[in-house]
Write the structure tokens for this entry.
Amino acid sequence: MKINKYFVIDFDSTFTKVEAFDVLADISLNGHPDKAAIKRQVAEITNQGMNGSISFRESLEKRLALLHADKTHIPALVNLLKSMVSESFKRNKDFFTTYSDNIYIISNGFREFIEPVVMEFGIKKENILANEFTFDSHGKITGFDKENPLSMNQGKSEQLKRLNLPGDIYVIGDGYTDYEIKHSGLANKFYAFTENVERENVSSKADHVTPSLDEFLYLNKLNTAISYPKNRINVLLLENVHPIALETMKVEGFNVETYPAGLAEEELCEKIRNVSVLGIRSKTQVTAKVLENANRLMAIGAFCIGTNQVDLKEATKKGIAVFNAPFSNTRSVVELAIAEIIMLMRNIPDKSAKMHKGQWDKSAKGSFEIRGKRLGIVGYGNIGAQLSVLAENLGMQVYYYDREEKLALGNATKCKSLKELLAIADVITLHVDGRETNTKLIGVEQFAQMKKGVIFLNLSRGHVVDVKALSENIRSGKVAGCAIDVYPYEPISNNEEFISELRGLPNTILSPHIGGSTAEAQENIGNFVPGKMMDYINTGSTSNSVNFPNLTLPTLENAHRLIHIHNNVPGILAKINKVLADNGINIAGQYLKTNEHIGYVITDINKEYNKEVIKELRAIENTIKFRVLY
Ligand code: NAI
């Protein structure tokens, strides 16, 4: 593409995430006893050169002398550098090919390793300006070509002067030598690139600080690959969500802020105004009032299973997609249930308590294997079904009851009613969801229907069981053992006393709602939820959203994607298509799904179109939110 602007891009810590000399040191000093100390020295000298405290030539000479590098180290260096290209450069490969005539790499680094890395991005060989090594007859690096302007102080400015480019010059880099170009009057603008490293004395002198190449392209209206720079999308992660979530979203380029605790309504109302993506766990209440202030909010990620803490109806009305982690901790709950069944069948809670008091009570009375016993699973969802498989593998006969039609896994037997299951099972375990109508699903009447000596587990939700009836049935011996993880009322914090009729009962395992609380589950959640939210932002895909119609979309290739969220009233799709037809736009693909409240229409169109059409689409009555992706 022909334009009258030139983009001068630095290599070390800008094009790549690292300083090539640091990587070269790793390779050339491999096995050297003082490797760590020398590497620290190299990094220190690099920084001194970068922030201007020593001259560039001095820094180059000192570093080369320390490295003991030779020709044989270069291929390995190139390979490593290729894998360390900055994320936003990788994302915007199109930019380099589209504007290849106008892009220059000007670096104080060395041609020998820069060329093979940047030419893969379509950068022209003649547009790469860098130093060159000198070698002795054994291939050892002896120094550098001292005639090359880039080996001198102010070398980048001198190099640009010699190039005499006929247009505006924009410099992007992380170091002082990049700023010098602008300072010497040879560039129109200097952009401090901070994706990999931020140097205060460079950023403070820049015309713009750009946290990624996306931002640079957006500012200069050059974005060919993305519709909006991710660093302008604010993400707020509350309640100490797993660090992997922060890491994933940062790598993607989002501007992420974290907070260890939850926020009270008033604080959140204030904070939410600039936030596009919110991550919470179970404590933060996202009320209608909070949502009233959330004009930029696109997605909420609940880093847990439940979403009761979010006003889903209001979120939907505002076109905010909500995601959760419905099966990230399934396995954790199942493992605990299995362990508890075995412990209870062997009377371990009582035996262990006695041992702690010094009582040796060796006896086989009332102890059973689980093999061959009948396990009754109430609620055959994610957890119930997985428990079914594991329990069967341990030799149990599995029976289940679900209010919905569910496929029996393995040899599991479906019961037609809860009553049938209660009467048949030796062990009963609850895995129903927490809907209100499940309150006291198991009470006096249901305990009466169970076998004498039944083992009973509840790891689902506290209100599902009538606790008074349960405690009476344990005291009477009807229930021979129970494991309870969830309670109708649960302490708000670890400082509050746990009060319950279940305390002190025989063969009773009580745990503080930790069925799903394992390191693995937390990590799974930390991976799963950001994945879903980023899919939504990057592609419009809503798979697994709890409040949006679920659409899994193909990746976007050579098209622009129009994402239209509207109130679910008749005729909107027709209106969208009329606007497109009136503007002569050809539809490459279209996907529509609705739920009770909203309609979600995705239309992929060819890249070339009259941008006025966007205004018309936004103006369609009943539109809640509209965005374009490319
Ligand atoms: P799910 O939604 O996949 O499965 C629930 C199943 O219960 C569904 O198949 C549903 O049709 C069925 N069901 C609902 N009401 C019923 C009724 N009255 N009679 C028969 N079947 C009924 O949920 P998932 O992921 O399997 O979780 C199950 C429960 O475990 C939920 O209550 C969840 O909150 C809880 N949970 C507890 C954890 C803990 O730390 N203790 C961790 C994770 C989940």
